Each structure stands twice: as C-alpha cells, then as structure tokens.
Amino acid sequence: MDPSPHNSSTAAGDSVLSAPASANPIPAPNSNSGTVDDQKESLSQIIDSVDRTLGLLHKLYLTVSSFSVASQLPLLQRLNTLVAELDGIQKMAENCNFQVPLEVVNLIDDGKNPDQFTRDVINSFISKNQITKGKTDALKSLRKHLLEELNQAFPDEVVAYREIRAGTAAAAEPEAGAGPECFT
User: Fold this and answer.
1) Which residues on adjacent β-strands are paired with residue 9?
2) CA distance 139 to 128
3) How many CB atoms lie within 10 A of CB 72?
4) How far apart are CA 104 and CA 112, in angstroms?
C-alpha cells in the first residue's frame, strides 16, 4: 500500500483525495464495463469489505489487549486476514472513480460527522444564492425606477424602447424557449 495520499485539485481549487490510477488496474469481481451499476456494485463491495475490516480490527484489538502465549496463533491469523482484506480493498478501489473532498477526510480524522461538510456546503450555497438574488432584485428595482423616470421625461422614447424590446424578446423566444420579460 502506498502511504502517501493521492491529492489533486478540482476546477474550483478544492483539494480532494481520489482513487489512484494504475497502469494495470485489476478488475473487481463482476465489474465488466465500468457502467454506473458496476461502479455502484464495486462501491458496495468496498463498503462491505470495510465493514469486515472494522470487525477484524475489533477482534485484533481484543486479542492484543488480552494477549497471552496461547493467543499468538489467532493473533497471527487475524493479522494475515486483515492484510488480505486491506489488499482486497486496494484492488477494488482501483476500479472506483470518485473523489472525496479533503475537508471530509479531515472531519473524519477529527472524529466529527462528515455530514457537517455537506451542511456547510449547502449553507454556503444558500448564502451565496441569497446574495445573488438580492443583487438581481436590486437591479430589477433600479431598472423599474429608471423606466418610470424616463417615462415621465421621455414618454415617446420609452414607448419605442418597449416596442423594440418586445420585438427582440419575441424573436428570441423560439430560440431560447423563454417568454418575453415584463416591461413595466
């Protein structure tokens, strides 16, 4: 096993850990073409293997904590089983193509729930969405106010402007599939 994490960056610059790509990947059982179903099955097999590994680690902990000369053979058997299970996980992981944000791994290392990362990302998106909505609402309000002021000062030009905008919106409607804007 390679002890170094495989770091890469996404387009947004976030650090992620990704499954290593090898020159000769070893196919996982029942993984024929790399379809979504095959990837889900491979991921399911990895999850099952991780569960087995956790069970083996627990048994290994119990064996080591109450170690005696008589428990040496079971200890060696459990260590060999653990190594084989970890090797199997490594081989199956080569066929999984997914990325885990480094922040999630850090949260797990800190003993926190990785769902916190999801909540933080969603809250960040909600906050940015509200800021963007506020800006667009402010621009719509400014446009409406300017049209009202222009209508009082130059009523004929505003009527011509609205006709041009309506014609442009009608011409763009079949292309974009969008309806005309409200010009009040």
Assistant:
1) 15
2) 17
3) 11
4) 9
CA 142 distance to own-chain centroid: 37
The first and second tokens of residue 137, run together, are 């609402």
Ramachandran class of 6: left when φ > 0, alpha when ψ lies in -120 to 50, beta otherwise? beta
Contact present, 71 and 129 (Cβ < 8 Å): no
pLDDT single digits (tens) 134-171: 999 999 999 999 999 999 999 999 999 999 999 888 88
| C-alpha–C-alpha distance, residues 8 and 15, integer Å | 6
pLDDT in tens, 83-110: 999 998 888 877 777 788 888 888 888 9
Virtual CA dihedral for 128, 130, 136, 140, nearest 10 degrees?
Answer: -170
Amino acid at the residue 3 = P
pLDDT beyond 60 at 26 = no
Q: State the burial class of residue 28 (Cβ atoms within 10 Å of its Cβ: 0-12, 13-18, 19+).
A: buried
The phi-psi region of residue 14 (left if phi > 0; otherwise alpha if psi is between -120 and 50; otherwise beta) is: beta
